[in-house]
Design goal:
With 502 residues, this protein is α/β, with parallel strands linked by helices. The protein has 13 helices and 25 strands. The strands form 7 sheets. Strands 1, 2, 3, 4, 5, 6, 17, 18 and 21 form a 9-stranded mixed beta sheet that branches. The protein has a 5-stranded parallel beta sheet with strand order 7-16-8-9-12. It has a 3-stranded antiparallel beta sheet with strand order 13-14-15, with no helix packed on it. Helix 6 (226-234) packs antiparallel against helix 7 and helix 10 packs parallel to helix 12 (466-475). The structure holds flavin-adenine dinucleotide.
Length: 502
Amino acid sequence: MIVSRTVEHVDVIIVGAGLSGIGGACHLKMQCPNKTFVILEGREAMGGTWDLFRYPGVRSDSDMYTLGYRFRPWRDAKAIADGHAILTYIRETADEFGVDKTIRYSHRVRRASWSSDHARWTVDVETGPGQSLVQLSCNFLYLCTGYYDYASGYTPDWPGVARFRGTLVHPQKWPEDLDYTGKRVVVIGSGATAITLVPAMAERAARVTMLQRSPSYVVSRPAEDKIANWLRRYLPDRAAYVLARWKNVLTGTFFYSLARKRPELFKWMVAKGVRKGLGQKYDSKHFTPPYNPWDQRLCFAPDADLFNAIRRGSVSVVTDHIDTFTEDGLLLKSGEHLNADIIVTATGLVLKLFSGMQLVVDSVPVDLPNTFVYKGMMFSDISNFAFAIGYTNASWTLKCDLTAEYVCRLLNHMDHHGYDICTPRVNDPDIGEEPVIDFNSGYVLRALHTLPRQGSKTPWRLHQNYMKDLRMMRYGRVDDGTMEFQTAPAARAAGAGVPSSG
Ligand SMILES: Cc1cc2nc3c(=O)[nH]c(=O)nc-3n(C[C@H](O)[C@H](O)[C@H](O)COP(=O)(O)OP(=O)(O)OC[C@H]3O[C@@H](n4cnc5c(N)ncnc54)[C@H](O)[C@@H]3O)c2cc1C
């Protein structure tokens, strides 16, 4: 491996050119036009999730009025959008704001180390497998790396897998040439991916069986938002978008709080919808989860596509456990055998914050479980650093837009006052500790021990609520008594103000 010793310096490094990295770069262009920045992207394409996932029917399950950027209207008629339409939206946004030119592809950041003396991050970047390692430095590091491992998805260790003579596929690595026309398909899983894949594959497969260990809450919602489309007909794009976005923020917040405060009522409402969708085919066993709504993410079926496929008879649902894989399919604990030509393991992602990148502060490796999350975007005692992680109960971009705005506010505040360093410090002795996510989904539980913690009070508490975050992040004080601002020791020693950004 060749290590380049030339260190290029910019004001801000964004890691990741997915939905949030591109959004973050656009915010920098708009709010901090004088800052220099680059986006380092490990893959050869932008779009992140929306470029990686290629399985049949891949789509959002949030509406695009809230999953889209606040600053760029979503103009398609479909609110629950296809993966390709989302990818196009990201690419067009990058092009429109000129941030596509700032992306360095095949630049995978392996390590980032902070020096308090120099008020700088230095990042080690691999420019291809076994290729040269380059270093860049920046004043502020903004990680938009998503939340899961790009290398592979999660596959449980089932007995007998090697015996299966058919095709075994994980949705994260969908083979481009997989022909499932007329084939018997079993999809293992009951999360958003399974709920998406099953009706999509049923259009061409001979038969699709959704095999789930336990059911999910499935809610049908229209793929097109009639009110949003009506608004677009009569109002300028931007005004229609703002109204549709707020309508969906408010309805989403209302239904989430109803689910948490009145779970029995919410369960009844969901069950009523499923019964209506399935008619004679309704069997409560397959649609009554053993947990409360929003203990795990709800699944959405656009225009009741899953229910319609079950009604037509092209899809069946089986709730059971796998005993073993066989040559021809799966033997279940109940003794039933499911014959399959193709088995799709829609068993989830491997949650991996910052894709396993190593963070080092003043030569000491950061131990994330020992840190607290500040405003859902920074960590205690880690300077000039932010990350974009969206909501678990609403669209990702709602939070990431606020985070990017806040990063710009911080940068502008530091410039205005001549500071080089900003560090959130836990200076309230009464802060209690809580797990950072209150979901009990398998992928969260598997990774909980690797995650940071949240505190019992603002600004260390994750609100998971757009309105509260909006108040705190757009209108709240940047100098809030928790964020510590300093001038770099090296700059102080030299009697200079802010060091040159190179
Ligand atoms: C199939 C699927 C459907 C989803 N649907 C929804 C939905 O409907 N609504 C919703 O709110 N959320 C949804 N999500 C969550 C989704 O991931 C987010 O909405 C959003 O796309 C995440 O964007 P991101 O840019 O933060 O992360 P990502 O899309 O994961 O992009 C991260 C980027 O960072 C790059 N990267 C990572 N590590 C490094 C590194 N060390 N060096 C360089 N580059 C790096 C990656 O290559 C990638 O391009 C879905 C997720 C999946 C998997």
